[in-house]
Write a structure and sequence with these properties.
transferase; 310 residues; 2 domains; Asp_carbamoyltransf; alpha/beta; Rossmann fold; five-stranded parallel sheet; globular; four-stranded parallel sheet
């Protein structure tokens, strides 16, 4: 299937040069670079079929700063509740006059059928697809790491937690490896995914601590677990076995940073005090997310010919 160049659904579709260009744009925006002019009024529909705080509000802020006309579709009050398909919902907002649709959906790869549909001409931006990928989260994570260390080559990254259900783990690991980082994974063995083996090796969390430059803790996604898994889960046991406790944090290098895609379950994936601690970059990630999403939308708008080139 030929990819539409004016969509952005997976960072793996981009070359290294394009990816670095996105990062440069995001960092430039954060430093105060002027926003290119729109060639006309541009309308964007935000379609979030899964709950979100950080992603939806930072896309909204990014759209505001770029001067877009924003329409937030109330999914719970939409025709989806009457059985309308995602494709028909997208065609509906397109017919009404939307130029872009930012979509988060529980279906992994929701965009695949839409990209191959010749009747869908608006731009698609993936705000997260099931257990698939999360392009804007990966970009803001890269931005956070680049601002901290200046480069990616040779950095060691530990990704810890609910690996099998995490779109962040899959999305980040592939791009991290491509950019020259060494990736390690840790967490419950039953949540290890062999899909990740090509990107890094699985180890016990206590074997990672002294060597990593970045420790990224993942949210335990109870909503994606089978009922038996939810019934057997206890927060205290998980924190003791796999969480970043204060004792574990003492073993990190002084230059190491702590990241988390959030929302954070304090006292489960990471000790509450560490979330706000000196090595934490969790809220920096959130701040960086606005500029990362501005960069993504800028690329899409310029590919569609709706925004002037810088």
């Amino acid at each position: 299937m030929e990819k539409n160049v004016h969509n952005l659904v997976d960072l793996a579709d981009l070359s290294k040069a394009e990816l670095n260009g996105l990062l440069d744009t995001a960092i430039a925006y954060q430093k105060g670079a002027a926003v290119p002019k729109l060639k006309r009024d541009v309308a964007v529909a935000n379609l979030f079929f899964e709950n979100s705080t950080r992603t939806v509000t930072s896309f909204q802020m990014a759209e505001h700063r770029l001067g877009l006309s924003r329409f937030d579709v109330n999914i719970n009050g939409s025709s989806v509740q009457k059985g309308e398909s995602l494709a028909d919902t997208v065609k509906t907002v397109q017919a009404i006059g939307m130029d872009l649709a930012v979509i988060r959906h529980s279906e992994t790869g929701w965009y695949q059928n839409l990209e191959s549909d010749p009747n869908i001409r608006l731009s698609l931006v993936n705000a997260g697809d099931g257990a698939g990928v999360h392009p804007s989260q990966t970009l803001l994570d890269l931005m956070t790491i680049k601002k901290e260390f200046g480069d990616f080559a040779g950095l060691k990254i530990g990704i810890v937690g609910d690996l099998s259900h995490s779109r962040v783990a899959k999305s980040d690991a592939k791009i991290f490896k491509e950019l020259g980082m060494q990736v390690f994974f840790a967490g419950p063995e039953e949540w290890w995914s062999e899909e990740l083996a090509e990107y890094g090796q699985y180890e016990a969390i206590d074997d990672l601590l002294e060597q990593v430059d970045v420790l990224m803790c993942l949210r335990v996604q109870l909503e994606r677990l089978e009922e038996s898994g939810r019934d057997n889960f206890t927060a205290d046991a998980y924190h003791e076995a796999y969480g970043l406790t204060k004792d574990r944090a003492k073993r990190l290098k002084g230059s190491a940073i702590i990241m988390h895609p959030a929302p954070v379950n304090r006292g489960v994936e990471i000790d509450s005090d560490l979330v706000d601690g000196a090595q934490s970059r969790i809220f920096d990630q959130m701040a960086n997310g606005v500029y990362a999403r501005m960069a993504i939308l800028t690329r899409v708008l310029q590919k569609q010919g709706l925004m002037e080139e810088k």
